[in-house]
Amino acid sequence: MRDFFARQEDARRRTGRLIILFSFAVIGVALAVYLVAVCTWMLSLKHLASGISLWNPRLFLWTTGGTLLFVGLGSFWKIQELSAGGSHVATILGGRPVPLDPQDPRERQLRNVVEEMAIASGIPVPNLYLLERERGINAFAAGHSLNDAAICVTNGALKLLDRDEMQGVVAHEIGHILNGDMRLNLSLTGWLNGILMVSQIGEMGLRGVRRTGGRGTAAIAVVSIALYAVGYVGYFFGRLIKSAVSRQREYLGDASAAQFTRHPEGLAGALKKIGGLAMGSRIDHPRADEMSHLFFGNALPEAWLHALDTHPPLIDRIRRLDARFNGKFPEVTPLPAPPPLAMYLTPQPPKAAPQQVAALSGAEVIALLSRAGDPMQEHLDRARHLINELPVPLLSAIRDPFGACAVVYGLLIDSTPAIRARQEEILTEQGNQVLLGEVRKISPVLSALLPEVRLPLLELSLPSLRALSRDQFLVLKETVVQLSAADNRTSLFEFTLRYLLMRHLEPCFTQRPNRPAQIYGLRGVQQECSCILTSVARVGNQDEFLARQAFERGLIVLQEAKIEFTFLPPAESGIACLERSFTVLENTSSLIKRRLLGACLECLRHDGKVTVAEIELFRAIADAIGCPLPPWLDMSQLHPIGTK
């Protein structure tokens, strides 16, 4: 299987090809509408002259222009409707949010599984929804980016799947998030709606004829029927395209889940239960047809034409995971409530914070980059242990928006008494003594955390922080800035926390800007790449000479003819430079991001050791430019794809 960067490039190319295919479908619909119009015009003449031609430039411009306008407006309206993100899509389909601290044991198990797999994948924990009225076994992931993703499961899946099976389904949906399928799926919905607008115009004409009746309505009825037919023919071909793409992506989602969990029997078990359940994976919602390609299983009854099925045959999917499957589906009955999470975890003894790990070899660098967007079972185990190592007070705090804010503030509290006093004054100025008391309560717990646990803790807090109101978010944003600047300087960790927090939360509270054009070459971003490499080189080397050597080691990966990179002086490579660089580099192509991260790893391994600070910075850089990285493992545990 190709790595994350190659799959992202493939998703971009695939989107381009689909736009071309849908453009052909729209052009075909426009030409068919013109043909209907010109035939109607000819038949409306009292006497047909022999010189009349099917080509009428003025009529062609009016009809094709009007058709393209209606199709464009229909697509634009639908895309705008879905632009609010995955949570909005889940709400449209009847989903309700799963509580941040569920009391129902099944919902708690589901939330635990999603959190573990998100941390293992290196992505922000998605919002979680439940389709309470749906008895079939199904799920979907929706959103435009990692920051607004949502995972939604049906009540049937919640009650009928055990933990391994649910883990397989969630891993499948995480695979869709990492493979760039979410944005494509929502775009497909918008494009299809535009083509359907033509048939809806015909349907409106027929309704008008039925209401009014009288003379002259026969011609209107004929034209309306023709438009209705033309629109649905275009919609039919659009659905063929959508279904073909969806089937291909489902196979990839299954393969991603099997590789992630290293337990294909769990995903196969969920698919077998779909086959053994009378409801299967069907969704009883009026908009199920429109959103059918989003789901884990076929949300609709089997189509009369298999080419219109959005999912591959169930038996075929199962046999790719379990070659010994005999085609007999099991009887499906509700499962008892799951045991506590502690039953699945082995308590880990306290660990001392590692100061450094062994130097990375070239093969290990390649293996680490290969893991971007492509986690292993070892990462899932590590994520479970990270969560299990968190003290109970912290786990309780991050399940609530108020407590999650206190955790963020607590991570920024300085150990120096004078600076700490100034930070507490900042919190007091908010007039919330209860909040200040909560920060004081959890600060000692936070200060005892291992450094590598801090970023996962921040990621676990995101679902609670998304539940803030816009005004509360603005207060959080301003307070974080003030706390990090209380000592008149911003440390690398403070900057990392602030940047990642705002990067993941800002899209939830502010209008999403138009996506800028992607940058496909290093020319024009060499200053930003120089800033990143300089920062990485200095974190691992206090001596300027050694830092410059580390920088030049990274250039071996990044260097390109006629493009110059500069080792920047400290005054030009500070926090402001990093923030500007992240913003620009997030819009570069996946292949440029891969080269930049490879160059950063070369910088890290230059001096023969990798410190915790370097690891944190590297993962923060990857996150900031849109490349999810799993938790760092001992390099002895890491192996290239395809080996074990």
Describe the structure.
The model is unreliable at 342-358 and 635-644 (pLDDT under 50). Strand 3 (139-142) and strand 4 form a beta hairpin. Helix 4 (105-121) crosses helix 12 (377-389) and helix 17 runs parallel beside helix 19 (492-509). The chain has 4 domains: 10-46 and 53-87 and 184-254, no CATH class; 104-119 and 127-179 and 264-321, no CATH class; 357-373 and 517-637, no CATH class; 377-509, no CATH class. The strands form 2 sheets. The chain has a 4-stranded mixed sheet with strand order 1-2-4-3, sandwiched between helices. It has 24 helices and 6 strands. It has 644 residues and is mainly alpha-helical. The two termini are 15 Å apart. Helices cover 61% and strands 3% of the residues.
CA radius of gyration: 28 Å
Which structural class best describes the helix and strand composition?
mainly alpha
- Element order: H for helix, E for strand: HHHEHEEEHHHHHHEHHHHHHHHHHHHHEH
How many β-strands, per DSSP? 6
- End-to-end C-alpha gap: 15 Å
By DSSP (H or I, 4+ residues per run), the number of helices equals 24
Helical coverage, percent range:
55-70%
Q: Sum up the overall morphology in one term.
A: globular
Q: Work out the count of structural domains.
A: 4
Strand order of the largest sheet: 1-2-4-3
The chain-level mean pLDDT equals: 82
Low-confidence stretches: 342-358, 635-644
Based on the structure, what is the oligomeric state of the protein chains?
single chain
Beta-strand percent range: under 5%
